[in-house]
Amino acid sequence: MSLLEIDNVTLRFGGVVAVNQVSFSVEEGEVFALVGPNGAGKSTVFNLISRIYEPVEGDIRFDGDSLLRHPPHDIAKLGIARTFQNIELFEQATVLQNLLVGRHRHRKSNFISELLFTPSVREGERRHRAAVEKVIDFLDLQAYRDKYIAGLPYGVRKVVEMGRALAIEPRLLLLDEPASGLSVEETQDVAFWIEDIKKQMGVTVLMVEHDMHLVSAVSDRVLALADGKVLSLGTAQEVQNDPKVIEAYIGGSDEPEREVA
Amino acid sequence: MRTVFKTSYDADINYFRHGAQATWYMLLLAIALILPFLMGTFWIGEMTNMLIWAIAGMGLMILVGQTGQASLGHAAFLAIGCYANVLLQLKLGLPFLLSFPLAGVIAGLAGALIAMPMTKLHGIYLAIGTLAISILTDDLIVIAEPLTNGVVGLFAPTIDILGLQFDRYATPDRFYWMVLFVAVAVVLVYRNILRSPLGRAFAAVRDSEVSAQAMGVNVARTKALSFGISTAITGLAGALMGHFAGIFNNETFNIIISIQLLLMIVIGGLGSIHGAFFGAIVVALLPQAIAISRDLISGFVGGGTVAIPGLESAIFGAMLIGFILFEPMGIYGRWLKIRTYFELFPFYRKDMFRRQKSYLKTERMR
Amino acid sequence: MDVLQLFVSGLANGCVYGLIALGFVLIYKATEAVNFAQGDFMMLGAFITLGLTNDQFWGLPFWVSVPIAIACMGAFGYLLDMLVLRRMFGQSQVAVVILTIALGFVLRFVAGVIWGHQPVSLESPIAGKDVRFGGLVLGLDEVTIIIVTVILTVLLYFYFNRTKLGVAMQAASQNQLAAYYMGIPVKRIHSLIWALAGAVAAVAGILFASKGSIDPSIGLLGIKAFAAAVIGGFGSLPGALLGGIIVGLIEPFASYYIAAGYSQIMPYLLLFLILVFRPHGILAQVHRKKV
Question: Which of A74, A91, A101 to substitute to test the interface with B, most B CBs within 10 Å?
Answer without folding.
Answer: A101
